[in-house]
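can u pls check wat happens w/ GLP
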Amino acid sequence: MEVIIQPNNDAAAALVARIVAHDLRSKPQLVLGLATGKTMECVYHQLAQMHRTERLDFSQCRSFNLDEYVGLRPDDANSYRHYMDQHLFNQVNIKPSNTHLPDGMAQDLDAECRNYEALIQKFGGVDLQLLGIGRTGHIGFNEPLSALRSRTRVKALTPTTIQQNAPYFGGEAKVPRRAITMGVGTIIEARRCILLATGESKADIVAQAVEGPITSMVTASALQLHPRCTVVVDEAAAAKLREKEYYRWIFASEPEWEDYR
Ligand code: GLP
């Protein structure tokens, strides 16, 4: 795991967008794993801008989102399909048929989960997976106690997550209780993972995920097992990390990051 600390939210999101752009230019058929949430909005905004101003080309790329709420139609304003259309897919030249999210309205949810896994495999697996982190330490919707080898499946959301997402739904009562999510095992099979966390509300959980033990109580900690995972944080989200100076030194000295400094 590598940790990159940026001065603020915009700089952190810009760095993540530049990594995506770099990988997409090196491999136009990139299979991108995508995440939702407030944190990612800034990354998608930057990618849309790069598409307009630098002709960043998404025409051959394919995407798989981490998760979707059970019971929300794709055109529901709170569905992750709607979020993705609004923040990224309608802003760039990705083919709609190349964008995939689990179908939270599927009659047979277990079959939907199996098919989603099979589809990821069919297209060769995820090259670059973007991740946020929830307050419970979840990646995707892998809430505490999710098996670290879990695959795509239906998960019950925790009260904390329901509370966190309530403002978007106009109250806790309206938040769906379940979601389909890629499993922790599915996520860490991606060839590269980038986790972005910004703001002081993430400082505690970032420190647990990065410097704490690997535990199913904080599923983001499973990323410590990943051979190529970068955690990008702003100063606020980095506040509780013990080894900040070491991370800064690595970022300043490693040739891989020369173009990003
Ligand atoms: C939701 C998503 C997660 C995301 C998290 C963080 O729970 N399922 O994938 O990481 O929100 O959201 P935010 O960026 O709004 O803090």
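The two ends are 18 Å apart (CA to CA).
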